[in-house]
Write the structure tokens for this entry.
Amino acid sequence: MGAGRTGSVLAVLGVLGVCATRGPGLAAEGKAGGEAEWAEPWDGAVFRPPSALGAVGVARSPGAPRPGREEAVDLPVLLWWSPGLFPHFPGDSERIECSRGACVASRDRRVRRDSRTRALLFYGTDFRAAEAPLPRLAHQSWALLHEESPLNNFLLSHGPGIRLFNLTATFSRYSDYPLPLQWLPGIAYLRRAAPPLEERAEWRRRGYAPLLYLQSHCDVPADRDRYVRELMRYIPVDSYGKCLQNRELPAPRLRDTATATTEDPELLAFLSRYKFHLALENAICDDYMTEKLWRPMHLGAVPVYRGSPSVRDWMPNNHSIILIDDFESPQKLAEFIDFLDKNDEEYMKYLAYKQPGGVTNQFLLASLKQREWGVNDPLLPNYLNGFECFVCDHELARLDAEKAHAASPGSIPVPEPHIAQPSHMDCPVPTPGFGSVEEIPENDSWKEMWLQDYWQGLDQGEALTAMIHNNETLQGKFWDYLTEIFMKRNQNL
Ligand SMILES: *[C@@H]1O[C@H](CO)[C@@H](O)[C@H](O)[C@H]1NC(C)=O
Ligand SMILES: *[C@@H]1O[C@H](CO)[C@@H](O)[C@H](O)[C@H]1NC(C)=O
Ligand SMILES: *[C@@H]1O[C@H](CO)[C@@H](O)[C@H](O)[C@H]1NC(C)=O
Ligand SMILES: *[C@@H]1O[C@H](CO)[C@@H](O)[C@H](O)[C@H]1NC(C)=O
């Protein structure tokens, strides 16, 4: 597809590949990759949505480039700047067929400055402001896929960071290609029958706590362990992960993280012995909901949840989970769980959505019906290919609008720019899991790490925005910009 024409860009890429040295103490240390969600042995346990980084399913189109179709030369090119995500195999570029027409998807960075290259696609977890492709070319859209935890890259949780992008696919319902239900395969997943109460009563008699906690990623922005530790003072919690561990899973195989990251029936069966599962997301953002929420429901347990503040919007009915933040204290929450634990009739009301007609939330039903991608469903496209086609369609429409304007500039205006909004990734500053920031000592690891990390994300977004505004071409200048912003902010304190 003519990528060879731009081969000379390779030399430049060689230079760009050598990324800038880190600024003096400004850059976040030891986060991102290492702390990424997939590092949590238990969190991803039961099923994974089609992993963006793993093998991808069947592309939406039969896809093989059709030699001899001359028009391919003029197709818009979508360049996956995060090459590990390129959802085609084999080769570095592929013709894709979407609703409005065809595009060429590529991961060959040599096409970056090509006039036909209309969009760059980035993966949020990998996006580094210091390595952004500069200069930013006016004819190119930047598209962001970021379904993972915001803790992987807090740059995107700030206005200046998210507004660098034109098109988004995030966990937020407000993003251009929304993925809030990325961990929910479908209604049937929720409808699975719960184990009989007598069975669970028997486990309780054998010494099991009412509540399960299973978390191995301990130092997270949502600071969940601080809350759970407090809750444990008032009600027994069996904790099997590395965080606040007080119990061991029965078999070495189950303790093995390799088992935990597969859909293991034995593990599922074990977890379903518990009536309540503590389900706390690692970061708090609107619509950021993971398997921590859906898995207990699948197993017929009641999630005791803290995460997306708007989680109620997605629940099967209005009485299916317990929200931690509805209670004024861990003690009050403990009292309520204890009450339900002793009162089967009240407990069973939380599982009413499993009965015929029990799923009454029309918004949930409609959202599942409307989405075009599937979760672990070989018959449906995955959201990686889905978003790629969304970007293709958007660029084809933008090309048409530009052509229409060029043909009659007097009557048809220049197409409006399309810019991502903070609502596409709505993650406020992290707050303590329990108590107030003032009460927590300065040397607390959560306070030292996550508050800093969050605000550094803002600085980085502002630095890159300023560089783009000034038409900077050298990535290496990023650290100068960042230092300047950092100094300015601290002067104003
Ligand atoms: C919950 O749903 C039930 C039945 O659909 C309804 O009667 C009740 O008013 C609802 N409660 C709230 C708080 O919305
Ligand atoms: C893309 O977003 C930038 C802001 O980050 C904006 O300046 C530009 O006009 C937008 N481009 C398009 C094609 O919408
Ligand atoms: C934090 O500081 C206090 C007193 O200054 C000290 O007792 C404590 O051990 C420190 N904690 C950590 C985690 O360093
Ligand atoms: C950046 O380039 C654009 C387009 O070439 C130009 O209009 C603008 O004035 C430049 N900005 C700066 C700060 O040089």
Q: What stands out?
A: Residues 383-407 form the longest helix (25 residues). The pocket of 2-acetamido-2-deoxy-beta-D-glucopyranose (ligand 1) is lined by residues 318, 360 (CB under 6 Å). The first strand starts at residue 77 and ends at 80.
